[in-house]
Design a protein that fits this description.
Strand content: over 45%
Strand order of the largest sheet: 2-9-8-5-6
Order of helices and strands: HEEEEEEEEE
Structural class: mainly beta
Number of strands: 9
Distance between the termini: 47 Å
Helix content: 10-25%
CATH architecture: Sandwich
Radius of gyration: 21 Å
Largest sheet: 5 strands, antiparallel
Shape: elongated
Number of helices: 1
Number of domains: 1
CATH topology: Immunoglobulin-like
Length: 125
């Protein structure tokens, strides 16, 4: 009888969902993008209090270039927008807050600029 009770108790414990107790507030991933010649990109993803802070920075050849940007979180498009490089840095920044889903989160950014220039960066946190 004790053996049956032990097996049942073990099965119940193993069937319970495992909850992560790790604090992800300090987690951050930076990824360099693959870009056309003369361009660079960096994608930063940071976990902060149940949300992901996502920042994409693209540096191009000149100021005033218009870029189309798509941001994908877990295979779903979450942002589709346009950005323009500005100032002497010849760059633009795109910042978004996304929900921090259970488990690992993958964020992919793709930017397409003038003359077919492009950048793609991916980060998993």
């Amino acid at each position: 009888m004790n053996r049956v009770a032990f097996v049942v108790a073990a099965a119940v414990v193993l069937a319970l969902p495992v909850t992560a107790s790790a604090d992800r507030a300090d987690d951050e991933v930076r990824a360099r993008g693959a870009c056309s010649p003369g361009r660079t990109a960096e994608l930063r993803v940071r976990a902060d209090d149940g949300e992901l802070r996502v920042e994409l920075r693209v540096v191009s050849r000149r100021s005033g270039e218009a870029w189309s940007v798509i941001l994908v979180h877990e295979r779903r498009i979450v942002t589709r927008t346009r950005a323009t490089t500005q100032g002497s840095s010849r760059s633009f920044r795109l910042r978004r807050w996304l929900p921090d889903l259970y488990g690992r989160d993958t964020v992919v950014a793709r930017a397409t600029g003038p003359g077919g220039a492009s950048c793609r960066a991916s980060a998993t946190l």
